[in-house]
Amino acid sequence: MADIHPTAIVSPDAVIHKDVSIGPFCLVGKGVTIKKGTKLFSHIVVEGNTQIGENCRIYPFTTIGLPPQDLKYKDEETGVKIGDNNIIRENITIHRGSIKGDGLTEIGNDNFLMAYVHIAHDCKVGNSVIMANAATLGGHVTIGDFAVIGGLVAIHQFTRIGAYCMIGGFSGVVLDVIPYMMASGERAKLYGPNTIGLKRHGFSDEKIQLLKKVYKIIFREKNTLQKAKERIQNELPQTEEIKNILRFIDESQRGICR
Predict the structure, then answer these.
(1) Are residues 215 and 119 in the same domain?
(2) In angstroms, what is the C-alpha Rg of the chain?
């Protein structure tokens, strides 16, 4: 049987693995599923159609699965899905999805979310993402794998942050940031490839130099976006990284950060 503190309130309709630990003054509502090895330390609220994966660590005063901050939301059946091995620190808010989106807020595996992070309705956070203190995602934001979001960053709704990006602290991001890049500023602009981060993740010097060429063609030379894409396709080897960038640009709805 799960280790549930006597002061915690857990709905009999919640599905709790026997290897879960729920600490003092937690509230776990109907429809919640918590998988093996996850620990809720204390004073945590988990509500709605929320699924939490294995071996997560969730710290005090966090709320997961409460209704979205969306005036159109009228108690529809939406949810939250959180993967495995996530660290979710103090005072974090993760809201359930909305009917305007696909109805699901999703967080992948192996993420580190620091204190006061806010993940709004319908956001999609990938795997191995780091979000520093008070980073805030508006609704429908997508964060790619291995991205790092600095402290006090605000990301506008429907904006996408590509894989392996680094967003500098105290930035406001209103346009899509293509994969492998750094962006920073009050209205964030690009500063080239995330060289240090890419090296830490094992990218070779050759791959990093190729990404620098891509950045130069798109952003530093006098090319239209269409012309830049044609040059990249014709002049550079079509590695997986280049294919990811071109696909990301083609799928952009808000436009790309320059």
Answers:
(1) no
(2) 20
Rounded to whole angstroms, how far apart are CA atoms 183 and 191? 6
CA 121/CA 83 separation, integer angstroms = 17
Q: What is the pTM (predicted TM-score) of this model?
A: 0.97
In a domain, 164, yes or no: no
Closest CA to 205 of 217, 193, 191, 216: 193
Give the whole-angstrom CA distance, residue 92 versus residue 64. Answer: 8
**What is the rounded distance in angstroms from the CA atom of residue 102 to the CA atom of residue 83?**
18
Evaluate whether 100 touches 70 at the Cβ level (below 8 Å): yes
- pLDDT tens, position by position, 190-209: 999 999 999 999 999 999 99
Instruction: Please pick, among 121, 140, 176, 197, the residue that the annotation labels catalytic.
Output: 121
Of the listed 48, 139, 144, 197, which one is catalytic? Answer: 139
Residue 184 falls inside a structural domain: no
Domain interval for residue 221? 199-250
Res 117: pLDDT: 98
Residue among 43, 228, 162, 141 nearest 28 (CA):
43
Q: Answer yes or no: 122 catalytic.
A: yes
Has residue 1 got a pLDDT over 90? Answer: no
Residues in the chain: 258
Burial of 11 (0-12, 13-18, 19+ CB in 10 A): middle
